[in-house]
Amino acid sequence: MIAEWDEYKKVADEKFGKHKAHLLMSNDRFTAIDWRRPGSSDYFVSFIVDRKLGSLIIHGDLGDCIAAWNHAVTVADIKQYVKDVPYFMKKFQCSSDRFVFETDTVLDCIINNLFNSDEEIYDYFTDREEYLRFREELYSEVDASIKNGEDFFPTEHLVELVTDVYDDAWEMLHECGAMISPRVYLWAIGFVMACDQLGM
């Protein structure tokens, strides 16, 4: 995850480089930060920390999120928590799309879940051409199952294709090939950048 953080930090530096953090409120319970480029609402983000309940609310151009730790926290605690993006995601109570899907990645994931090795592939299919036809049909169904790159709803035929190979394969389809959305990294990195700017 460090490589992804570093990759998205470069994106954040570009998108958020001119942003200024404004502390809207800070009391015994809440900290509210407005973070935007002066005179613009492009890529604006609002962060609200409820220290008593241990929650972070994110709202803005990059979507929305509520994450809850369910124990008292400090802003410094949350800065550390969000740096572990998979852990941060486990705390989401609700959010805009948290995953993205690409046809090739989902296809590879399905193939890897159905077959442990190339030998298993060629044991299952009578010849290479049969496997390539299967893969092409699978690709077409995966592509039809992905909506706007953010939603993956397996078609009925995709479910049939994978369950013909392995009866319980439908169980892995819903998360197969899911990649963490760039927005999640930008929420986390943006929060850290805004807090750093305010000396928090």
Descriptive report:
The chain is an alpha+beta fold and 200 residues long. It folds into two domains: 2-98 and 181-197, no CATH class; 100-179, no CATH class. Helix content is 48%, strand content 21%. The protein contains nine helices and ten strands. The chain has a six-stranded antiparallel sheet. Helix 6 (128-145) packs antiparallel against helix 7 (156-165). It is elongated.
Task: Itemize the secondary structure elements and their pairings.
Layout: H1 2-16, E1 20-26, E2 30-36, E3 45-50, E4 55-60, E5 65-68, H2 75-82, H3 85-90, E6 92-95, E7 99-100, H4 103-114, H5 118-124, H6 128-145, E8 146-147, E9 151-152, H7 156-165, H8 170-173, E10 179-180, H9 182-197
Helix pairs in contact: 1-9, 4-6, 6-7
Mean pLDDT: 91
Query: What is the C-alpha radius of gyration, as a whole number of Å?
Result: 21 Å
Uncertain runs are none
Major sheet strand order: 1-2-3-4-5-6
Main sheet makeup: 6 strands, antiparallel
Spatial separation of the terminal alpha carbons: 24 Å
DSSP helix fraction: 40-55%
**Assembly context of the chains:** single chain
Compute the number of strand runs: 10
Derived structural class: alpha+beta
Could you state the order of secondary-structure elements as H and E?
Answer: HEEEEEHHEEHHHEEHHEH
Q: Count of helical segments?
A: 9
> Quick one: overall form?
elongated
- Beta percentage is 15-25%
Q: How many domains make up the 3D coordinates?
A: 2
